[in-house]
Amino acid sequence: MTNARKLSRRQALNSLGMMGVGAALSACVQPVVAQTNIDEDVLNFALNLEYLEAEFYLQAAFGRSLSVADSGGGPAPIGGSKVTFATPAIQAYAEEIALDEEAHVKFLRAALGAKAVPRPQIDIGPAFAAAADAAFATTLTPAFNPYANELFFLHGAFIFEDVGVTAYKGAARLITNKDFLEAAAGILGVEAYHAGEIRTLLYAQKDVVTPYGVTVETIVQKISDLRGAAGGGKDQGLVVGGKANILPTDANSIAFSRSTDEVLKIVTLGSSTNKGGFFPNGLNGNIK
Q1: Helix (H) and strand (E) counts in the chain
Q2: 113 in a structural domain
Q3: 262 and 120 co-located in one domain
Q4: CB of 284 closer than 8 Å to CB of 46
Q5: Same domain, 26 and 123
Q6: How would you class 229 by CB atoms within 10 Å of its CB: exposed for 0-12, middle for 13-18, buried for 19 or more?
Q7: Which of 38, 81, 171, 178 is most exposed, with the fewest beta carbons within 10 Å of its own?
Q8: Residue 140 sits in which domain range?
Q9: Could you tell me which residues come within 8 angstroms of residue 77 by beta carbon, excluding any fewer than 6 positions away?
Q10: pLDDT single digits (tens) 120-169
Q11: Above pLDDT 70, what percent of the chain?
């Protein structure tokens, strides 16, 4: 065989080889599907949750609500009052978290501009008692009140913080704009700091027996079980396998994610209509 024929054959084989590689790669590569931009809907969903957290913490720490401008003109919340803190450090933590949540509201409203939804009707009073009764499957006496003392305030805070972390993580895949995604990741980080802080304070008092005749650890586990039942599982108490569990994660030590539907079921206390619980009339916006 001449050198020319050898070269021609080698080139043909190389071409076939490259065609084979190309075919293999083509089989592996999935077509790119354009993602529908629902950033405004996602941010408004987050804004509803931030309204809830801000109102709870502002009432507990300072005895006030969001300003009319920051509420978007929505109705005043139901319930809420200032907590008489016995521990200066816990009061300082509550005040810091309250101002963080107020800042989140301001930030999201500024990012959304004219598209920002107003504060919906929020229940930060009787809804807590309803949540506690649901967690224990009975009517507690006295009714649970997160403003009664600093320990019950921490229980009230526990209801929200882990939900915020899972909600922002779950929403990450829905956000198109990278600037919004980065901002949401930043808020998630702050919510995770808050959650770790609240869980640490509760763990330090996990063996304290409450007026309901059970320990702090038991109450927190009941709340966790209720959230898990309403929100697709993915929840943990203060102790797992007999060890401290300040950071609730999956088997890979990754924070849990929740869909918007799962979050809605938690904050409306399992309502089939997504109206009730902490949002008596539902959330404002397209995701509700």
Answers
A1: 9, 2
A2: yes
A3: yes
A4: no
A5: no
A6: middle
A7: 178
A8: 38-267
A9: 55, 59, 65, 119, 121, 122, 123, 124, 125
A10: 999 999 999 999 999 999 999 999 999 999 999 999 999 999 999 999 99
A11: 88
- Coil vs helix vs strand at 226: helix
In a domain, 285, yes or no: no
Where would I find the beta strands (DSSP E) of the chain?
239-240, 243-244
CA distance 266 to 229: 9
Secondary structure of 14-58 in HEC code, one letter for each residue: HHHHHHHHHHHHHHHCCCCCCCCCCHHHHHHHHHHHHHHHHHHHH
Beta carbons of 223 and 135 less than 8 angstroms apart = yes
Whether residue 193 is found in the same domain as residue 243:
yes
Q: Do 18 and 48 share a domain, yes or no? A: no
Which tens digits make up the pLDDT trace of 93-115?
Answer: 999 999 999 999 999 999 999 99
**In Å, how far are 8, 44, 205 from 4, measured between CA atoms?**
6, 70, 86
